[in-house]
Amino acid sequence: MITGKNQIGYKQSAEGAKKYKTANPVTNSDNPTVFYEATQLEIDEACSLAAHAFSTYSKLPGVKRASFLNAIADEIEALGSDLITMYMQESGLPEGRAQGERGRMLGQLRMFAELVKNDTWRLPLLQDEGGNLKKTYIPLGPVVVFGASNFPLAFSTAGGDTASALAAGCPVIVKSHPMHAGTGEMVATAITKAAQKTAMPEGVFSNLNSSGKEVGEQLVKHKGIAAVGFTGSHHAGRALYNLAAARETPIPVFAEMGSINPVVITQQAISKRAGQIAETYTASITQGVGQFCTNPGLIITVKSEETTHFIEILAKHLEATPGGCMLHTRIQEGYEKSKNEIKAQESVSLKVVGSSSKPNHTTAALAVVDGTSFIANKTLHKEVFGPFSMVVLAEDKNELLNIINSLEGQLTATIIAEDSETIALQDITLALQSKVGRIIYNGVPTGVAVVDGMTHGGPYPASTDSRFTAVGNHSIMRWVRPFSFQDFPTALLPDYLK
Amino acid sequence: MITGKNQIGYKQSAEGAKKYKTANPVTNSDNPTVFYEATQLEIDEACSLAAHAFSTYSKLPGVKRASFLNAIADEIEALGSDLITMYMQESGLPEGRAQGERGRMLGQLRMFAELVKNDTWRLPLLQDEGGNLKKTYIPLGPVVVFGASNFPLAFSTAGGDTASALAAGCPVIVKSHPMHAGTGEMVATAITKAAQKTAMPEGVFSNLNSSGKEVGEQLVKHKGIAAVGFTGSHHAGRALYNLAAARETPIPVFAEMGSINPVVITQQAISKRAGQIAETYTASITQGVGQFCTNPGLIITVKSEETTHFIEILAKHLEATPGGCMLHTRIQEGYEKSKNEIKAQESVSLKVVGSSSKPNHTTAALAVVDGTSFIANKTLHKEVFGPFSMVVLAEDKNELLNIINSLEGQLTATIIAEDSETIALQDITLALQSKVGRIIYNGVPTGVAVVDGMTHGGPYPASTDSRFTAVGNHSIMRWVRPFSFQDFPTALLPDYLK
Prior knowledge:
- 2 copies of one chain form a homodimer.
- By secondary structure, chain A is an alpha/beta fold.
- Chain A has 2 domains: 6-257 and 463-497, Aldehyde Dehydrogenase, Chain A, domain 1; 262-441, Aldehyde Dehydrogenase, Chain A, domain 2 (3-Layer(aba) Sandwich).
- The first copy, chain A, contains 14 helices and 22 strands.
- Chain A has helices at residues 40-57, 62-78, 80-91, 95-116, 160-168, 181-197, 214-221, 234-246, 267-286, 305-320, 329-343, 371-376, 397-406, 426-433, and strands at 6-8, 11-13, 19-20, 23-24, 29-30, 35-36, 133-139, 143-146, 172-175, 205-208, 227-231, 253-256, 262-265, 298-302, 324-325, 349-352, 361-362, 365-370, 388-394, 410-416, 436-441, 480-486.
- Chain A has a 7-stranded mixed beta sheet, with helices on both faces. Chain A has a 7-stranded mixed beta sheet with strand order 16-18-19-14-13-20-21, with helices on both faces. A two-stranded antiparallel ribbon of chain A has the order 3-6.
- In chain A, strand 13, helix 9 and strand 14 (298-302) form a beta-alpha-beta unit.
- In chain A, helix 2 (62-78) packs antiparallel against helix 4 (95-116), helix 3 (80-91) runs antiparallel to helix 6 and helix 4 packs parallel to helix 5.
- The termini of chain A are far apart.
- The model of chain A has no long low-confidence stretch (mean pLDDT 96).
- Strand 21 of chain A pairs parallel with strand 22 of chain B, so a sheet runs across the interface.
- Chains A, B: It comes from Dokdonia donghaensis DSW-1.
- Chains A, B: Residues 15-458 form the Aldehyde dehydrogenase domain.
- Chains A, B: Keywords: Oxidoreductase.
- Chains A, B: This is Aldehyde dehydrogenase.
- Chains A, B: It holds the Pfam family Aldedh.
């Protein structure tokens, strides 16, 4: 069923000499399919088809794009358990997670179909009634999507970036993630079938294999590309942002690059319900073996006996939680490396070390550090991608605010507090607000609901442009620009403006 | 009345050794005031005050920011004819233009006051009713504004960028334009008075003098700055964009960098009303001595006897139009240089050469070139800032489309046609749409109405980010980011979300 070939418009292609395989982290062995990395010529062909498709696809009425998106969801659903099996083989993630993520992906595709089916989203909120200017939003052009290692479905080939870009009227070229190229190919094939069934122009979608950085770099630099969507590491996201900014014609890059998601716990909350908080946060820290960009990597609280007690309970819970298989050997190695880097810093004590009994497996780890050391040492502000969290102990509320103010931009922040003390939390709320895109009260940051109220993004380095969200209907605004018709005859206006 | 000093928060400061004067282009002599360029310390102080002001200014209810904006308009109005005199001395522009531009500036300030007074603009169009997530827009932080040489009021110190940023909740630091530093100081003083009268935090506004590039560069690189608004040349805009993208924390730059604003005229229109079109376009090309970013610099039409006749009429009209004084010696020299560069290109004939009888004065010029040469020669695609236009002669409609497709991004495009032929214009409309932010039918591109339906921006290089507009209420979206409250207690929500 899987060919290892690139999907270039309606054609499968394998012209390159560079080959690679995906791995099953659970069995610690390669999967059978050989994937062919895209060549420069194949990249050019995908871009040229996308540019050509754009001229017709961008002008389709919303109802046609909606049928395409719904057809994609239907075709992916029709892959049935084969897709789930492939997903598990390439990610080591359990079946429940695979099914949940598939549901999220299908839901997103159908949500965007619903959004665009009648084109009203293209009319801005502010509009002059009866004036001679009519304003609308039009698509930017072909978009390159870089999928995430940790979401082979919901943030990859037919994930939120692809769904929102296709909904906007932009053709999409996916730079396939090397760790789940098979899952990617299956989804790409479903998208292609849907495009053919709904008579979309060839080139509205392509899927290019890549084992390293080159294919992605060539795509971002390509003249035919108008925008980039990325979910992944800060290192890779920033490199692509730099390439895009250095182009003769710079293009927007929306890169969601992760976060350490600070959680502030008040003394009252610790006194009243240390056990419950420890339990809830153990689940959040270890969920998906910690491989979420909203993983709570930082717990900030004031030093006290109760806090010491809370750390002990949290440590016990984390130690008692069974480990899990990480997505890939490279990710597990990266996790160990980052953890060891933190461990090596002065003043940091590792309360729970975490162990790795089987290949690619790990259990949770917990570090503790004082506020002064944390503020002074930027290494401690880096994301450790995995089931890791660090408690930062402030001397007092003042230092707690200083700790917050020392943080970089984040996707989320959370406040754990008693309802009786909310007024006293005004300054903490405001300090956190200046650093993040979403703030949670008495909850956990993991779990990013696909709703209009969601902001999934945040000040740099959480994302490259905090003015947009990667999740929910609003994420379509990344791929469109305003456009005004002045004194235009009705016959020349798009139908929805007539 | 004018001191030549920098306005740093509520203080006037002149610590620097670098001094300069503005010039009166009409008398071709320096104006009396000596201006003190801001030093690195003064820049730091303005940024530090702005960061401090942000923490309170960003949280004010809209109604307070509205009174500040209205007070700015009132204080500027109270400057009366002194401001008009200074404007004319520093720009050489006539009194009617000065008054018109002041009206536009005051109107914009009051428009943004009206927009933000009740905070409803901060609630996104798409919102989940009754969900546990509440989404709003919050300001980015201190914004640096670079004013335009050609709009000392409406696109400068208290122009659209400043008004929209202050409305959004962002403190503003203006990098004063060296050509109209006196006008800038008068407006800055009015803003400062308004800030004091309405009890705004010190640092909500500063105005820094600069004679060259250094002050602007230091501001864009400054850690305390969150975004940049710019109106000016492609060269300067791109340089600032590059600096902002290279920062450790990149920041958004909205630079509006001008355009050649193609105008397509059909053969039917030329046959029926060559005289009227020539007259209308003579007025548009020479308005403000051509010193508008929406000046029609390119007229595209098909070769024919009628076209030859139209060019003759247009040339006669342009020749008969009295010249005018340009804004500055440097602008007049730049105009002559660009015009001569075009003239030196093969296949270009200068139908109207334009003359310069008095210092800083010029009359209009008109060039003609064939489509093939235009497509092949990128020098001919550059903006000539002044009363200049070039007719590009296509062999047929197919070449006319190729000419459009060869263009870079533009602010506007215009179609001049007969109503009977609109259907046949579909392809031309779509081709132009892919290149511009606004398209005009049977009108002129000059004149940018301050209304919600306006898009003033466009694909690069017309602007650095086509997803925003620089004019109208929507321009506030450049300075804000989405933010979500999840499960938040009412007491901790901003009033407008309660």
